[in-house]
Amino acid sequence: MVHIQAFTPVISNGMLGAVDKNLIAMIEIMLSPEAARKMLKFSAFISLSLIASISFAKPCSHYRSCLILKNQHTQFAMVTCNWLNTVTSEGNAQGSTQLDLGYGDGLGAPEPRTLSCSFMTAQTQHDFNFYNPYWGSRIEFNLITEKQLDVRVIDGWSSRDTKYKFTW
Q1: In whole angstroms, how far apart are CA 138 and each of 2, 46, 48, 87, 135?
Q2: 105 and 26 share a domain?
Q3: Which of 62, 56, 160, 153 is closest to 104 using CA atoms?
Q4: Same domain, yes or no, for 77 and 120?
Q5: Tens-digit pLDDT profile for residues 77-132
Q6: CA–CA distance from 92 to each of 89, 117, 142 (Å)?
Q7: Residues 77-86: pLDDT tens digits?
Q8: What does the H/E/C string look like for 15-51?
Q9: Max Cα separation, the chain?
Q10: Domain total for the chain?
Q11: DSSP 75-114
């Protein structure tokens, strides 16, 4: 059996921090070894789940700092830009990746700069560059065909946007 003792101080005279040592209550909880193992397994599962959930890119849940791939093509597609997370999408579907996960303030990811990107499908790969003029922008990649990609950069703090069209 596992023996856990918890000491609970009781404040007796109403003054903050004044503890009457005679009123300390001892609580004993008796657990079987099986219950202790189950508790340990459960806490390990919760810890690993939390680590896994913050380790992987997540779908966009905020308007700012987001990459979206709208794939109108029939095959899987992937776009990777500089240091940003990769965004993927199955054929005729949409995929997204939330950026700036550390602070969630929409600043810094992506920052204003030129982005060098690569677009890939099963049959082709194309490289392209464009300028992101905004902080915390949402970048939408709209794959029309394997040879046409439209990019829309939307300011996360206003209604401004910038559009680019790439054809190969």
Answers
A1: 53, 32, 30, 12, 9
A2: no
A3: 62
A4: yes
A5: 999 988 677 899 999 999 998 876 555 554 556 777 888 999 999 889 999 999 99
A6: 8, 21, 11
A7: 999 988 677 8
A8: CCCCECHHHCEEEEEEECHHHHHHHHHHHHHHHHHHH
A9: 83
A10: 2
A11: S-EEEEETTSPPEEE-TTEEEEEE--TTT-SS-STTPSEE
Residue 78 and residue 161 in one domain: yes
**Integer-rounded Cα radius of gyration of the chain:** 26
Domain check: are 36 and 89 in the same one? Answer: no
Residue listed under structure tokens 């069209």? 165
Q: Where in the sequence is the domain holding 11, given as residue range(s)?
A: 2-55
The overall average pLDDT reported for the chain is 75
- 80 is a domain residue: yes
Q: Pick the closest to residue 104 from 60, 149, 155 (CA basis).
A: 60
The C-alpha angle with vertex 92 and arms to 80 and 68, in degrees rounded to 5, equals 35
Residue 49 shares a structural domain with residue 125: no
pLDDT of residue 37: 76
